[in-house]
């Protein structure tokens, strides 16, 4: 045994010299090696852009890796941006480990001089050499110049510009932020020629992109082209043969980029900023990290809030399986016996969704019916109860689940989960379910705003000049990019309508300050003022009329601003104002919106005759916009400042909610004053939670919406207050809510006394049933207790289905 080992060791020593014989900076020749112990043993590309060498990945653990040389870094400090690794899952010892290029042409990584941890299994009769190129490709060539092996063919978690991604390629995320070993998320070409993202855990796996609920063509993909090639070009355009494409936010040349399958299941494109010091995200697949499957393990829910990031939490009645590892999820604290069906109860988890693992799907069943089905099935852990009008008139679906995986909060609206628990513990668990806390902002900001149409107000000229000068330099540089953009947008316009979703995602533009200054004629026509800034009318170079909001005092870095704006820009609903783009240059932060000819609801209510039908449509449309914000996208996109000034009216008198997401944009990162001074909104429209220090949830918007409804009915503004004359003090003011309640004490009185509150501008012409319904809904929305208020989804149901509304509202 000992002699065999000695023989082996001497053989290895023969093939792999103990110290590297040549200077290794420009290439490794056959018969030489790189040693883990010599810091100088690195290969560097001709332009010094990339290096390859041993990089520490843990205590006395090293991997052979390729990294970027800018931002300047050192393997010793463990701070290099790694783009490839030979042995990510099997690090080598920090002593006597070597990368040897054997005379035979095989490239071998040896742990402590003995075990082959990794090899290329190449063979060449002629001498070979190993070099790294400026594109980050590590290439093994023979004397004739044939490529025997290259790192581009076996990417780890990163794809570099011009590195082809094909049928045999796969990006696999790393395990966690600091752990480079193989993680759970894969990017690959599926057998049907479509680029997919897969969560592949130890026990289960599921594809989560393109969305498994969409057909391929619905997701804008084609399965027709079987060449399966994707590539990120040098300007920042990614294109794949399945028709998936995207453009980097900083589309243009001479920028270092890398596309990375991140450990959290998201794919992000990173660009190196001009200063060469920081990587910024210039594109990502999901704005919502919880969209990735498997991020939280079984029986848990993924919740995302921008200030806390992604968070996992166990569902009620379950506890973490292993305190140190969320990927293992949670396990039940209780035991359910299968032959005692009457001993189980169901706990409602509102707006929670688990994807996959359905035992069965039942349509047209009642909640009670679904409970019965689930309680009689031993394997049923709970069910998803969905109300979906899109599919059929009854539209109710019950999905019984055997596994609770891919849990997610704030999924699609009208979807609640009912968890099976022992009846004895039901009330206890029910009391432990809490709404996740949400914050609108961290800053004192009680604004009284008017959306005026005063025109011709000029800016402070000297300041303006300085800003112009600063921006002009950048502006010229951006002009070229702008033309490319225009060209791309034009060409995409002509493509099929299915591509329009992609257009919405990528056609969203980055404007230059110079461009916007020109479009607004040097910011001369102010059309309003709102939270955080002034709004100007503009005509863009392509002829579109836009409203441009100029944020004052943005206390936010560029990268964060871009990330947030991209989130907001992606929200797409007919009752939300469309954002066309933004400008972030130096200190300037501008948002470009579509322009609404009819102005705001506030203006329309005070100066114009809005007939009843229009008012009712505005009520429903606004509710739809808000429901989309709250339920179908993300619960954290609270508006926090709903009022008639922020509801704009389009040419068909449909409402569009504006200024959403601004509360977040304006106040991100200012954590210092978080608790005391988190109030924002407008007096008269603000929910009581703001003052009473209770958690801020989407119900603050429901409250404000209720006030808007009352305003639609009465024509009275809560901000003005209502003078109560028959009081001791004639100047005392009461709130709009109190005033309406006073007049309409009970439902019976509502019928008879409604004329006392109705806006005289309606001249008595209205739909009586709709009006009573609207007032009833409004009063539900403005209840003191946030839990008593309906969700926006429920509001829509109540407005549209008066008959059903009774049962729905008592159900909560
Ligand atoms: C990385 O994660 C893997 C899998 O959990 C684990 O085996 C390994 O020890 C970790 N490595 C480091 C350096 O923490
Ligand atoms: C990495 O560490 C080195 C040495 O400590 C330092 O000079 C360099 O600036 C660091 N780079 C980054 C990107 O942190
Ligand atoms: C490696 O070998 C190829 C082919 O023999 C040669 O063209 C190239 O210059 C060599 N590279 C270095 C760095 O010596
Ligand atoms: C894919 O893109 C090509 C070229 O852009 C277009 O001709 C084709 O119709 C697209 N296919 C689908 C299914 O969208
Ligand atoms: C597939 O896509 C490639 C690249 O876009 C194109 O060259 C090729 O003609 C396509 N093949 C088919 C069958 O459409
Ligand atoms: C949790 O996981 C860690 C690391 O995987 C392991 O060391 C520990 O024993 C586990 N704890 C329990 C309670 O299973
Ligand atoms: C449940 O059924 C099993 C066999 O079917 C039986 O052994 C067990 O006693 C039953 N448990 C209860 C609580 O009835
Ligand atoms: C749903 O069930 C009810 C009562 O069982 C029945 O009257 C109705 O026709 C069903 N609707 C559909 C769409 O199947
Ligand atoms: C569930 O209920 C049973 C019976 O009342 C009780 O013994 C047990 O402690 C409860 N478990 C929890 C977690 O409340
Ligand atoms: C859970 O609590 C809510 C209010 O907190 C109540 O309306 C509901 O009926 C309770 N559900 C059960 C099953 O006890």
UniProtKB/TrEMBL annotation:
<comment type="similarity">
    <text>Belongs to the protein kinase superfamily. Ser/Thr protein kinase family.</text>
</comment>
<keyword id="KW-0472">Membrane</keyword>
<dbReference type="InterPro" id="IPR011009">
    <property type="entry name" value="Kinase-like_dom_sf"/>
</dbReference>
<dbReference type="GO" id="GO:0005524">
    <property type="term" value="F:ATP binding"/>
</dbReference>
<keyword id="KW-0732">Signal</keyword>
<keyword id="KW-0723">Serine/threonine-protein kinase</keyword>
<keyword id="KW-0418">Kinase</keyword>
<feature type="domain" description="Protein kinase">
    <location>
        <begin position="521"/>
        <end position="804"/>
    </location>
</feature>
<dbReference type="InterPro" id="IPR000719">
    <property type="entry name" value="Prot_kinase_dom"/>
</dbReference>
<dbReference type="InterPro" id="IPR000858">
    <property type="entry name" value="S_locus_glycoprot_dom"/>
</dbReference>
<dbReference type="InterPro" id="IPR008271">
    <property type="entry name" value="Ser/Thr_kinase_AS"/>
</dbReference>
<feature type="domain" description="Apple">
    <location>
        <begin position="338"/>
        <end position="422"/>
    </location>
</feature>
<dbReference type="GO" id="GO:0016020">
    <property type="term" value="C:membrane"/>
</dbReference>
<dbReference type="Pfam" id="PF01453">
    <property type="entry name" value="B_lectin"/>
</dbReference>
<feature type="binding site">
    <location>
        <position position="549"/>
    </location>
    <ligand>
        <name>ATP</name>
    </ligand>
</feature>
<dbReference type="GO" id="GO:0004674">
    <property type="term" value="F:protein serine/threonine kinase activity"/>
</dbReference>
<dbReference type="InterPro" id="IPR024171">
    <property type="entry name" value="SRK-like_kinase"/>
</dbReference>
<dbReference type="Pfam" id="PF00069">
    <property type="entry name" value="Pkinase"/>
</dbReference>
<keyword id="KW-0325">Glycoprotein</keyword>
<dbReference type="GO" id="GO:0048544">
    <property type="term" value="P:recognition of pollen"/>
</dbReference>
<dbReference type="Pfam" id="PF08276">
    <property type="entry name" value="PAN_2"/>
</dbReference>
<dbReference type="InterPro" id="IPR036426">
    <property type="entry name" value="Bulb-type_lectin_dom_sf"/>
</dbReference>
<dbReference type="InterPro" id="IPR003609">
    <property type="entry name" value="Pan_app"/>
</dbReference>
<keyword id="KW-0812">Transmembrane</keyword>
<feature type="domain" description="Bulb-type lectin">
    <location>
        <begin position="19"/>
        <end position="153"/>
    </location>
</feature>
<feature type="signal peptide">
    <location>
        <begin position="1"/>
        <end position="21"/>
    </location>
</feature>
<dbReference type="Pfam" id="PF00954">
    <property type="entry name" value="S_locus_glycop"/>
</dbReference>
<keyword id="KW-1015">Disulfide bond</keyword>
<keyword id="KW-0067">ATP-binding</keyword>
<protein>
    <recommendedName>
        <fullName>Receptor-like serine/threonine-protein kinase</fullName>
        <ecNumber>2.7.11.1</ecNumber>
    </recommendedName>
</protein>
<dbReference type="InterPro" id="IPR001480">
    <property type="entry name" value="Bulb-type_lectin_dom"/>
</dbReference>
<feature type="transmembrane region" description="Helical">
    <location>
        <begin position="465"/>
        <end position="488"/>
    </location>
</feature>
<keyword id="KW-0675">Receptor</keyword>
<keyword id="KW-1133">Transmembrane helix</keyword>
<keyword id="KW-0547">Nucleotide-binding</keyword>
<keyword id="KW-0245">EGF-like domain</keyword>
<dbReference type="InterPro" id="IPR017441">
    <property type="entry name" value="Protein_kinase_ATP_BS"/>
</dbReference>
<keyword id="KW-0808">Transferase</keyword>
């Amino acid at each position: 045994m000992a002699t065999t080992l000695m023989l082996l060791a001497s053989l290895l020593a023969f093939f792999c010299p103990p110290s590297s014989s040549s200077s290794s900076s420009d290439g490794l020749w056959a018969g030489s090696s790189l040693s883990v112990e010599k810091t100088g043993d690195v290969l560097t590309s001709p332009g010094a852009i990339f290096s390859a060498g041993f990089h520490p990945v843990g205590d006395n653990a090293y991997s052979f890796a390729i990294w970027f040389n800018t931002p300047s870094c050192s393997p010793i400090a463990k701070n290099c941006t790694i783009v490839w690794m030979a042995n990510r899952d099997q690090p080598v010892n920090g002593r006597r480990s070597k990368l040897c290029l054997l005379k035979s042409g095989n490239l071998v990584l040896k742990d402590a001089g003995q075990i082959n941890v990794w090899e290329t299994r190449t063979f060449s009769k002629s001498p070979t050499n190993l070099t790294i190129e400026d594109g980050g490709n590590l290439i093994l060539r023979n004397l004739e110049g044939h490529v025997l092996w290259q790192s581009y063919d076996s990417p780890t978690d990163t794809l570099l510009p011009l590195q082809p991604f094909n049928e045999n390629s796969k990006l696999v995320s790393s395990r966690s932020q600091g752990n480079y070993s193989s993680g759970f998320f894969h990017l690959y070409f599926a057998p049907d020629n479509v680029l997919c993202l897969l969560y592949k855990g130890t026990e289960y796996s599921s594809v989560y992109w393109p969305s498994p609920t969409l057909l391929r063509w619905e997701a804008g993909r084609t399965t027709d082209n079987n060449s399966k090639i994707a590539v990120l070009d040098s300007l920042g355009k990614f294109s794949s043969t399945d028709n998936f494409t995207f453009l980097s936010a900083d589309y243009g040349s001479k920028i270092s980029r890398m596309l990375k399958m991140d450990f959290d299941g998201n794919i992000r494109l990173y660009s190196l900023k001009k200063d060469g010091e920081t990587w910024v995200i210039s594109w990502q697949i999901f704005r919502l990290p919880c969209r990735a499957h498997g991020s939280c393990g079984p029986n848990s829910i993924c919740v995302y809030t921008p200030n806390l990031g992604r968070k996992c939490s166990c569902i009620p009645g379950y506890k973490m399986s292993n305190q140190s590892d969320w990927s293992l999820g949670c396990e039940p604290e209780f035991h359910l016996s299968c032959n005692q069906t009457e001993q189980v109860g169901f706990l409602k988890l509102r707006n929670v969704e688990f994807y996959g693992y359905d035992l069965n799907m039942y349509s047209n069943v009642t909640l009670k019916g679904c409970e019965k089905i689930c309680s009689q099935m031993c394997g049923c852990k709970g069910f998803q109860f969905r109300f979906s009008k899109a599919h059929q008139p009854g539209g109710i679906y019950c999905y019984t689940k055997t596994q609770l995986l891919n849990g997610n909060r704030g999924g699609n609206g009208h979807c609640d989960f009912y968890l099976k628990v022992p009846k004895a513990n039901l009330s206890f668990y029910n009391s432990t379910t809490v709404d996740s806390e949400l914050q609108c902002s961290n800053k004192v900001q009680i604004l009284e705003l008017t959306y005026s149409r005063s025109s011709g107000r000029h800016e402070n000229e000297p300041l303006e000049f300085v800003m112009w000068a600063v921006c002009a330099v950048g502006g010229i540089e951006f002009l070229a990019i702008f033309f490319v953009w225009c060209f791309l947008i034009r060409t995409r316009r002509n493509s099929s309508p299915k591509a329009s979703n992609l257009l919405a995602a990528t056609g969203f533009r980055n404007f230059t300050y110079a461009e916007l200054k020109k479009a607004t004629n040097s910011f001369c026509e102010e059309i309003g003022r709102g939270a955080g800034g002034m709004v100007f009318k503009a005509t863009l170079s392509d002829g579109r009329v836009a409203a441009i909001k100029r944020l004052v005092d943005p206390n936010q870095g560029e990268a964060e601003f871009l990330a947030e704006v991209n989130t907001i820009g992606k929200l797409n609903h007919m009752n939300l104002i469309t954002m066309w783009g933004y400008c972030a240059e130096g200190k300037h932060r501008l948002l470009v919106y579509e322009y609404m000819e009819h102005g705001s609801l506030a203006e329309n209510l005070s100066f114009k005759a809005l007939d009843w039908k229009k008012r009712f449509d505005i009520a429903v449309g606004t509710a739809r916009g808000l429901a989309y914000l709250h339920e179908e996208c993300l619960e954290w996109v609270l508006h926090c400042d709903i009022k008639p000034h922020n509801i704009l009216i389009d040419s068909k008198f449909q409402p569009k909610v504006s200024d959403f997401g601004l509360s977040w944009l304006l106040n991100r990162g200012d954590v210092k004053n978080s608790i005391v001074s988190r109030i924002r909104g407008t007096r008269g429209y603000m929910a009581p939670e703001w003052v009473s220090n209770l958690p801020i949830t989407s119900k603050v918007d429901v409250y404000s919406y209720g006030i808007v409804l009352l305003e639609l009915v009465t024509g009275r503004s809560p901000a003005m207050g209502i003078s109560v004359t028959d009081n001791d003090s004639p100047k005392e003011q009461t709130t709009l809510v109190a005033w309406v309640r006073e007049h309409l004490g009970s439902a019976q009185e509502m019928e008879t006394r409604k004329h006392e509150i109705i806006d005289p501008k309606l001249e008595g012409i209205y739909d009586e049933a709709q009006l009573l319904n609207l007032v009833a809904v409004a009063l539900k929305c403005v209840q003191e207790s946030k839990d008593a208020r309906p969700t926006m989804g429920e509001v829509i149901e109540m407005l549209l289905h008066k008959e059903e509304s009774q049962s729905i509202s008592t159900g909560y």
